[in-house]
Specification:
two-stranded parallel sheet, 13 strands, globular, 37% helix, alpha/beta, single chain, 359 residues, 7-stranded parallel sheet, 11 helices, disordered C terminus
Length: 359
């Protein structure tokens, strides 16, 4: 990246966006952030507020004149702004769909108009219910009924990817698409259904860790610092133009085992409590059993490798939770009864889980 580059980061007050802004500024660049603060937070950017190379604009990617103004003055566009999180998507599906499609169209049109390089954030939700794995960028999408709100998010992000691809093919847009798998780290809110921040906050307060469904679902969790490192490498790489890249970790863990890990690392007295999908998200919610990325394409082009372990991810989430609550863990004095279920035991089925995956 040119040391004098100026970047527009939409959604830059959000979780991943704010970490990317920090990195860009640390590397000597100028950054303009556009964020409507629906899910982003100004405090995520507090450390940059007095930097003369940083500017914040409160506004929406649906505001075409504002987007056009900001894209024109910047060299590169990083489009992260989106309605995110399963909870938000299920509760406000129409607003989320419009934001995720029309907002991206607005940003892409301006980037194409001024011939700006653009990186567009997509999601592992693209793959839908495809639980085979690891999933590469050409793996099939398997979705449920369009009437189920969960799949509107996947469809919206697919529309975004299609627009980026077609603008690249037909109009020369210098676009790159990234599909984030589960990304975790400081500043991530538990408010929108993110599992590790939610587990961490429950654990530090000694509350039951709520698991949706049976808990056998398997996921991989990447530290946000490693996700940002991948973005920076792709922005430096001319060969990434026109491409789509998975960004994620490859160490699988079941949600049940994840709960155990969080409780153990937090030295918590918490128990585990199962909540049905219907109670958590309403009737008709569908989930997938396994979601594992194949990042061969990203690694081959850039040499990227994750540097943080799952233990690092959980430790940061616990530290964030303690800072947020300002509480001390409940004491487990001598002779206190053991409250945790046996590791690897499914309290619903009463049987040992079939297989554990190292992380």
């Amino acid at each position: 990246m040119d040391r004098s580059s100026k970047y527009l980061v939409t959604g830059g007050a959000g979780f991943i966006g704010s970490h990317l802004v920090d990195a860009l500024l640390a590397n000597g660049h100028s950054v303009v952030v556009l964020d409507d603060l629906t899910t982003g937070r100004q405090e995520n950017l507090t450390q940059n507020w007095t930097d003369p190379r940083f500017r914040f604009r409160h506004g929406s990617v649906l505001d075409a004149p504002l987007v056009d103004e900001l894209v024109q003055e910047c060299d590169t566009v990083i489009h992260l702004a989106a309605a995110v999180g399963v909870k938000l998507i299920v509760e406000k599906p129409l607003q989320s769909f419009i934001t995720n499609t029309k907002g991206t169209e607005t940003v892409i049109e301006s980037a194409q108009r001024y011939d700006r390089r653009i990186l567009i954030a997509s999601t592992s939700e693209i793959y839908g219910k495809n639980s085979s794995g690891p999933l590469d960028e050409t793996s099939d999408r398997i979705l449920g009924s369009p009437s189920i709100a969960r799949w509107s998010y996947s469809t919206a992000k697919a529309v975004d990817e299609i627009m980026a691809c077609l603008y690249h093919q037909e109009r020369g847009l210098r676009s790159t698409v990234v599909r984030f798998f589960n990304t975790v780290g400081p500043r991530q809110s538990p408010a929108y259904g993110m599992v590790i921040p939610r587990f961490a906050r429950q654990a530090v307060r000694g509350e039951p860790l709520t698991i949706h469904g049976g808990g056998r679902q398997r996921r991989c969790f990447l530290h946000v610092a490693d996700a940002v490192a991948a973005l920076l490498l792709l922005l430096e790489e001319p060969g990434a133009v026109g491409g789509t890249f998975n960004i994620g970790a490859d160490g699988e863990i079941s949600i049940l085992d994840l709960a155990d890990r969080v409780i153990a690392q937090a030295e918590s007295v918490s128990t585990v409590e199962h909540v049905s999908y219907a109670d958590a998200y309403g009737p008709g919610f569908e989930d997938m059993e396994r979601r594992v990325p194949d990042t061969t394409k990203l690694r081959a082009l850039t040499g990227w490798r994750p540097r943080h372990t799952l233990s690092d991810v959980i430790a940061d989430a616990i530290a964030d939770a303690r800072a947020a609550w300002g509480d001390k863990l409940p004491a487990r004095g001598p002779g206190a009864p053991e409250q945790r279920r046996p590791v690897g035991q499914d309290p619903v089925a009463g049987t040992a889980l079939a297989g554990r995956w190292p992380v």
